[in-house]
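Researcher: I'd like a structural prediction for the single chain below. Treat it as a standalone chain; there are no partners to consider.
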Amino acid sequence: MELGEVLSKAWKIIWKNKVLWIFGFLSSCGRSGGGGGGGGKTNFNLPTNNGQFNNSSNPFSNGQIPGLEEFQHNFENLAGSGGEMPWGLIVGLICLVVFIVLIAAMLGTIGRIGLIRGTVLAEEGQEPLHFGQVWSASTPYFWRVFFLNLLAGLAISLALLILIIPMIFFSIGTMGIGLLCLIPLICLIIPLSLAIDVVLEQVNAAMVVENLGLWDSVKRGWQVCRENFGPVAVVALVVIVGGGIIGFILALPLVLVALPMVIGGISQDQTALTSGLTVSGALLCCLLPFIILLQGILSSYIGSIWTLTFLRLTAKTPVQLEALPVP
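Model: Treating it as a single chain, here is the predicted structure.
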């Protein structure tokens, strides 16, 4: 497999079929686990003296979050006095979080499948691609891919809990000294999680490209990674390092967005802080569409690379027949 050919081909596919950018953004929603902060108007009524913060009345002057101790005291009183806990609100919040996570997982699933199917269709010459075409070609695989990644996520989470809980008790029992001995193990978790993610990429590709079941996809993806360890490792290194650098570059404008807010906070002036928050919010609203677009392009490019990698590694090599001598 030629790495340069895979990288250039993947770029040509997503550039010629820009509809894959949408599926790339959907795929990134699932990978990041959904999320997103809520907006709203915030009224900052901080104690001031002619527009200047009073050091004596500055709520952050003691290094603590204002109102935190009062909230903790009220919560302890509610729990200790036998007061009725707002279980309805707690259950509602849990259900809301689960709902958001499920929606993000479903969007990520359809995005992941769309990238794989779109790349396969483009490789077969069915270009230019349309959204409805890729969507209809992706839906037959939805539940299989969804449950595959759900089970994988649950298994990984359970393994982390089994690993982390004894580490916590060990650290508490040794007064934190034992945590130093666990640093190598903690550092090992990062490359191990990356390796699992690489295998899952090939498992998903096997399920969609070869139309396999859950267990057969796992065996096929593991077989591809095991028998082609070198090429897969090189592609993973390029994707992880290159994607990390590009992601860091994409995150740099967010620093500029936060700059007016930081300057307003440092000036210790309520008017400057309010203006800084307003400017930062306006800049974020203007920058957000470009971030979404670039994130979709990056995710679609990476997804296309992994799909082409699977196709190249599983392609059957034609048998070379010996030429018979001419009589």
